[in-house]
Write a structure and sequence with these properties.
515 residues; Hypothetical protein af1432; alpha+beta; single chain
């Protein structure tokens, strides 16, 4: 009766273990849990877990209480085993049969497998009993081997593994195999998602090399900020603790925050000057036509003089001087327009001069009167600051809406449901002056506020933006302080970013960090 009760207790314990294992999706953690629970079940001093891949057995996890106590370690460097019957683990993997060995040093030489004593010799350890179980998934395929070493009695002496453990550990191994298969599937899906994100960002980089690398760097900054917040024990963030899953979610939001730029016209993303090279070339052709019309005008005047029998050298010379003066004025006007085209700021004086030049009239080859600049050209050249018109700036801003639309359609898992929210709010400002929704204060998620600080900083120091010159990190820090003081950026996040020097160079290890 006592034996039956003990068996029922073990079944209950096995179910509890199964439930615990089913909730773990990290493969490395899962393998350690499986081995630990199997050892607890059998009171095993040590154990190893192998995974079968590419025709080999990989020694993934090992635990040894005796050696932990002696040497202060709980794992050994993994190494692959050939998938043959010569080793104990190899035999179980190939045949799919379990082994319950009373004493590994008394294995008959007639058997296919034998013990390799090198581990015992190297570590001054004494292996005796072993229970080695194949890990079969629900399709009957052996995906690994669970190897338990030295079942201990109440005095800590190695004894053979009891026969009743065989079915229980086989059951646990079968459950574990399914969980490992599922965890690996999730891991592969995550790798696929990583690759998908990389491809999306690469597509943006390919369209606009001027912003290449921006999303990578911003992702590195946000992960640093989130981890720094986790370290705070006083102040506003004392009770804020991002889980690894939340940091991973924020990381992906940073990677995807500018994916909407794929919907913005390339000529706007790549706009270096107020007018494109092609548009300015049209102006140059027109100014040649203007000069040609001036020359024709003076030729006609000279012809009229000759027709009226006036052959005055001084008058002719005066006409030539006037023509050269007008031609010089046209060249100077073109040079001025060229300089305005490259300006980042148009002051009042130059704005007035541009307006006057644009309104000048010439007569084209058809005899029609035209202004020096078209309304379109003047509209673009008369921008007060930067090189984007108000309409173009709105189109650039629309990338946030495009981002939201694109990633809203991605069927994110539960852990990643907030990615669209965080990514689409990275241009919102605490005082409501941001876009697209003009959110205020607490309406903006903390993760988006982190993303905004990282985004602003990287945009300021970026040396490859066509519409602005890069500023130094020190100057960028001053700008962050100014923006925080004026209520646009989160002061506490800016303080952490600066005080912890999180702005220092981002390494490749920050791009897809381990969570």
């Amino acid at each position: 009766m006592d034996r039956e009760i003990a068996f029922q207790d073990q079944i209950k314990k096995l179910n509890i273990i199964g439930i615990a294992l089913s909730s773990e999706t990290n493969v490395k953690v899962l393998l350690g849990m499986i081995l630990k629970e199997a050892r607890n079940f059998t009171n095993a001093d040590a154990g190893s877990l192998y995974i079968k891949e590419d025709g080999k057995l990989y020694f993934e996890v090992t635990q040894n209480d005796t050696l932990d106590g002696k040497m202060g370690r709980d794992t050994f460097a993994p190494h692959p085993l050939p998938l043959t019957k010569k080793s104990i683990a190899g035999y179980v993997a190939v045949t799919g049969k379990f082994l319950n060995i009373r004493n590994v040093y008394e294995i008959s030489r007639s058997l296919d497998y034998s013990l390799n004593p090198e581990f015992d010799k190297k570590n001054n350890y004494q292996t005796r009993s072993m229970l080695v179980i194949p890990m079969e998934d629900n399709g009957g395929e052996v995906i690994g081997v669970l190897q338990l070493i030295n079942s201990l009695d109440s005095n800590g002496h190695a004894i053979p593994f009891a026969m009743e453990y065989e079915d229980l550990i086989s059951s646990l191994a079968s459950q574990a195999a399914v969980f490992i298969r599922n965890a690996k599937l999730i891991e592969n899906l995550k790798k696929f998602f990583d690759a998908l994100v990389r491809c999306c960002v690469s597509a943006i980089d390919a369209r606009s090399p001027h912003t290449a690398g921006h999303s990578k760097r911003v992702a590195g900054y946000v992960v640093r900020i989130a981890r720094a917040i986790n370290q705070k024990r006083i102040g506003k963030f004392a009770k804020v603790q991002f889980t690894p899953e939340e940091i991973e979610e924020l990381n992906y939001a940073a990677w995807l925050h500018d994916v909407g730029k794929v919907g913005v016209r390339e000529n706007i993303l790549e706009k270096v000057n107020r007018l494109s090279d092609d548009q300015f070339e049209v102006i140059k052709v027109r100014f040649n036509e203007i000069k040609f019309s001036i020359q024709n005008k003076y030729i006609q005047k000279k012809f009229d003089l000759l027709k009226n029998n006036v052959n005055d050298e001084s008058t002719s010379e005066e006409l030539d001087n006037s023509m050269q003066h007008e031609l010089k004025d046209v060249d100077e006007d073109l040079e001025f327009i060229s300089s305005v085209n490259k300006l980042k700021f148009l002051n009042h004086e130059k704005g007035n001069k541009l307006r006057k030049v644009s309104r000048k009239i010439y007569q084209n080859y058809q005899g029609k009167k035209r202004t020096f600049l078209t309304k379109y050209e003047y509209h673009h050249l008369s921008i007060k600051s930067g090189n984007l018109t108000e309409e173009e700036f709105h189109e650039i801003q629309s990338h946030v809406a495009y981002t939201s639309n694109i990633i809203d359609d991605i069927p994110f898992t539960k852990n990643f449901l907030n990615i669209p929210v965080f990514a689409s709010a990275h241009h919102e400002m605490l005082n409501g002056t941001g876009y697209p929704k003009k959110l205020h204060g607490v309406e903006i998620p903390l993760q988006s506020r982190i993303l905004t600080v990282a985004d602003v900083f990287d945009a300021l120091i970026a040396s490859d933006r066509p519409y602005k010159k890069a500023v130094s990190p020190d100057r960028a820090i001053e700008i962050l302080k100014y923006e925080a003081k004026n209520g646009r950026l989160d002061q506490d996040i800016v303080d952490i970013f600066i005080e912890d020097k999180l702005y220092e160079s981002i390494s490749e290890t920050m791009i897809f960090p381990e969570f």
